Amino acid sequence: MKIKNNEDVIALTDKHVARTYGRFPIALDRGEGADVWDRSGNHYLDFVSGLAVNNLGHCHPAIVKAIQEQAGRLLHVSNLYHIEQQSQLASELTRLSFADKYFFCNSGTEANEAAIKLARKYFFDRSETGRKDIITFDQSFHGRTIASLSATAQKKFHVGFAPLLTGFKYVPYNDIPALGKAVGPQTCAILVEPVQGEGGVNVPAKGYFKAMKKICKKSGALLIFDEVQTAFGRTGKMFAYENFGVTPDIITFAKALGGGLAIGAMGATDKVMKSFVPGTHAATFGGNPLACSAGLASLKVLSKKGFLANVEKKSEYFIQKLKQLATRHSAITEIRGMGLILAAQLNRPGAEIVNECMRNGILINCIQSDILRFLPPLTATKKQIDQVVKALDLALTEIFGEHDS
Which domains does the chain have, with CATH numbers? Predict the structure, then answer.
């Protein structure tokens, strides 16, 4: 079938691709920075960034160059052999983070699966075989494989997949007394997102993670940070845990690590990672030369002097503009988030706002039915932020028929 426009791609998708997504009626064809074009030639400003994958925008020159060079040398070899690019990427991640060693996989859900296994194996090796329970939080999202789905405390994702795995306990987010009551002698770990992404861009109260860390120290439980969406500059720091003055025992990454290529990672301290020995865990494609080369190029850009400080400045600017917008539209009840993972809470469904923005060349997304989420490339400019806010202003007026003075 010869592809001419969006409609041709949509027809092919409908005929041959599993309908696991409710897709918008466009087929993106190429991109540069925050700009993308669809198969029919229409231009959009992308403030979804592949769901926080394209932190450096589309087709960043450094990442494209690294991929091109590596693709001509070696794409894949088994982890039965040493992989230079993987070792280099692990070395760079340990330099930047608290973790001493890293395990590589292909996605966030795989990274979280690895963390779950490692936490349980750690206590098994210590002859504390009764410690198997992992505590997670209401509105969390940790993935869609059966263990990470069981860890996800949102019932809407569970429908149709019973029985889920046992060994997971859910508690309210931002509620230290409830967490304290839930932790017991069977608890092996607490698994938490520093900022809940899919759950609504929920930011913890001041001191929340320090209190959580104290509970872990007192009980002996491990603290796992799921930074699949929040790492690599998304919150204004290289890793979100840096915002809270707390260091976890295990951390998980994916999304932005590869600059657009699929790669996940799970890191831990030497003390904990000693429980992963040959035969305990593996991933055929994990840490392949191509993805690791892209990851190295991405980290090099993110680590440049002033890059993350500039992200924080743009965050402040974007938040200010969104709050000004909220004063003009009663449909917006709250602006929240940190860095460039931001949200506008609405008092009514927001799907039509997303559709109207798309019709006007702006891509954003709606989560939890009434929350507009913004995940722009970290390289987005203030001018582009202004374009998005202007489009939002017009969409809110068009859909809800209001513009408060």
Answer: 6-60+305-400 (3.90.1150.10), 74-302 (3.40.640.10)
